[in-house]
Design a protein that fits this description.
Helix content: over 70%
Distance between the termini: 219 Å
Number of helices: 2
Largest sheet: none
Number of domains: 1
Structural class: mainly alpha
Shape: rod-shaped
Number of strands: 0
Oligomer: single chain
Strand content: under 5%
């Protein structure tokens, strides 16, 4: 080539060659700097990935604990609801039993009032009968006393008559 153009192009070619070598060197340095930057970013990303992995594990652990806590709370609520339902049913049954007892007590109190009325009437009748019996007994005692007196008197008369006849 130097034959065609001569030596006049050689300095230009050498300059271009130096510029290309310089550009190549700059590109290599830039590539190296970018590679260093990429490696630094990669290390940062890997560190961030490890950090995020730890955070994710913590989150999963706390999520699992929260889920277990929620399940326990649901179970406690269900147990409480079941106990409340049982207590409610027992109270309802007790209320029904109390109503039945109240009705029975009302019936019994009516019977008691009726029986008390009958007892009062029987007591009154008994007192009347006792008073009549006392009157009859008093009268009977008087009559017996009179009769006894009459018998005694008659016996005395007989004696007298017997004494007289003898």
């Amino acid at each position: 080539m130097s034959f065609i153009f001569g030596n006049s192009l050689q300095p230009h070619l050498d300059a271009a060659k130096q510029e290309l070598a310089k550009a190549q060197e700059q590109l290599a340095e830039e590539r190296c700097a970018r590679r260093t930057e990429v490696e630094r970013v990669l290390k940062l990303l890997e560190a961030e990935k490890r950090k995020l992995t730890r955070v994710q594990k913590k989150f999963e652990h706390s999520h699992k604990e929260a889920q277990q806590k929620a399940e326990r709370a649901v179970k406690e609520r269900d147990d409480w609801m079941s106990a409340h339902k049982t207590a409610s049913e027992e109270l309802k049954q007790a209320k029904e039993d109390n109503n039945k007892l109240r009705e029975q007590a009302a019936k019994n109190s009516k019977l008691v009032v009726r029986y008390l009325g009958e007892v009062a009437a029987l007591k009154k009748e008994n007192k009347t009968l006792n008073d009549r019996m006392d009157g009859i007994l008093a009268l009977t005692r008087e009559r017996m006393a009179e009769a006894f007196t009459n018998v005694v008197n008659q016996n005395g008369k007989r004696r007298r008559l017997g004494e007289l006849l003898d």
